[in-house]
Specification:
The chain is mainly α. It has 3 helices and no strands. The longest helix is centred in the middle third of the chain and has 37 residues. It is elongated. This is Transmembrane protein. It comes from Elysia marginata. Keywords: Membrane, Transmembrane, Transmembrane helix.
């Protein structure tokens, strides 16, 4: 059996979602349609930039880890093969 605290948890989470949705609706309704479009565009751009930054950071970290973890003579063999 679930305790009262565990039963209350999902409803608390649901309440938080409702509050967020209500807040979002208030924000969207309080601005004009044209401003709402600008807000959406800005949000999309910010999210896109954030995704690109995360991808770049992951690629750089993976590359650095791969280069650092490989033995140096192995890297020299790859370089010689590429340059020949």
């Amino acid at each position: 059996m679930l305790s009262d605290d565990q039963l209350a948890q999902p409803s608390l989470c649901f309440d938080n979602i409702v509050v967020c949705c209500t807040f979002f609706e208030v924000v969207v309704v309080s601005v004009t349609k044209r401003e709402a479009v600008h807000v959406v565009v800005v949000v999309v751009i910010v999210v896109a930039v954030a995704v690109v930054v995360v991808v770049v950071v992951v690629v750089v970290v993976v590359t650095v880890v791969a280069v650092v973890s490989q033995p140096h003579h192995h890297n020299r063999q790859i370089f010689n093969y590429v340059s020949s």
